[in-house]
Design goal:
This protein has one helix at 321-324; strands spanning 2-8, 12-17, 31-32, 43-50, 54-59, 63-68, 82-83, 96-102, 110-115, 119-124, 136-137, 147-153, 157-163, 167-172, 186-187, 197-204, 221-227, 231-236, 250-251, 263-270, 274-279, 283-288, 302-303, 313-319. The protein contains one helix and 24 strands. It has 326 residues and is mostly beta strands. The N and C termini lie close together (11 Å).
């Protein structure tokens, strides 16, 4: 059966049946997905998976742990969940930054890892097959850098990296040399002073047989961009051309003149998908992607979620279609 796994910033984890959440309209306040809004309960990850999947949980320091989804205790919608250290030996000063569900460890798949300061690497998925709850080092990091993203990919995919200040770059995964578990990797994009990576995505390249040189992206596939102040839009994937790795990238978001804002999410979505938008204070809204307008790279978007003055968008996760219809 399918579940929603929720991990909070305070390091709590719980599993809930997917049917706990119904879809809501754009611009609503949303349902609470965790109990009282303290810093402990800010949601950092929320995704759906099968109960028999392996959860690959990696921390900001570059350590990965393996856990089966059914080993995560179930909780109600308002329950806090259990502390991660009670299910995994995560050090007290370390934080789980990415959770990936893996159904099988196939030979032609890789895991691509990206850090806040712009380093990226890919390692064969097989290297993680014997990952236990004891943990393994999966990346060497620079002082002050944090490992934030961890996704599966093949050599037929592209990687799209977006930065907080609204730049984005897209390059081919096969141009990224496969390295071992402990390497640091290479630069994914040139970041301006004060900029950091906001999001990483793996994009499937769809190539037409008639024109092998031209990349045909699906007309239904978009990049959903949301800012921490609640503005959002979706951009057609073909607006992002493939370039060499390590470039400055192109503009993906212009911000409203008033107030400081930055990119909080840059996510590949399908027009029929639904997303779960979660604020720092734990308010969750489930929305249909098609309700968010499609705009160009240089547009500022529309208000997707009304926020209280001191709240911001913390994370966005996809509710896969076959689940959304449950």
């Amino acid at each position: 059966s399918r579940s929603v796994i929720v991990v909070t910033r305070g390091g709590y984890i719980k599993r809930m049946p997917l049917k706990t959440f119904e879809s809501q309209g754009r611009g609503t306040r949303g349902k609470k997905g965790t109990s009282s809004a303290s810093a402990d309960n800010e949601v950092s990850h929320c995704f759906t998976c099968n109960d028999h999947d392996t959860l690959l949980m990696s921390t900001q320091r570059g350590v990965a742990f393996g856990l089966r989804a059914f080993q995560v205790p179930t909780g109600t919608r308002t329950a806090k969940g259990v502390p991660i250290p009670s299910v995994l030996p995560v050090k007290t000063d370390d934080v789980v930054t990415s959770v990936l569900s893996v159904s099988e460890f196939s030979d032609d798949e890789y895991i691509v890892l990206a850090t806040e300061q712009g380093w990226i690497k890919k390692t064969p998925l097989k290297a993680f097959e014997n990952l236990s709850s004891r943990g393994l080092i999966i990346a060497s990091l620079n002082e002050g850098d944090r490992l934030r993203w961890c996704q599966k990919c093949t050599d037929d995919d592209d990687i799209l990296i977006g930065s907080k200040l609204g730049m984005a770059t897209r390059f081919q995964t096969e141009k990224l040399r496969s390295t071992g578990r402990t390497s640091r990797g290479v630069r994914s994009m040139k970041l301006k002073e004060g900029d950091t990576v906001a999001d990483m995505n793996v994009l499937q390249r769809r190539v037409n047989d008639d024109s092998p040189s031209k990349d045909e992206s699906s007309p239904d596939e978009y990049i959903l961009t949301l800012t921490s102040n609640g503005y959002g839009k979706r951009i057609q994937t073909n607006e992002f051309r493939t370039t060499a790795r390590g470039g400055v990238g192109v503009i993906c978001m212009k911000f409203k003149a008033s107030g400081k804002d930055n990119v909080s999410c840059l996510r590949v979505v399908d027009v029929d998908d639904e997303v779960m938008v979660i604020t720092a204070k734990g308010v969750m809204v489930r929305q249909k992607v098609k309700d968010i307008p499609s705009q160009g790279r240089a547009a500022t978007g529309v208000m997707v979620q009304k926020l209280d003055p001191d709240d911001s968008i913390a994370s966005v996760s996809l509710v896969p279609q076959k689940v959304a219809t449950d």
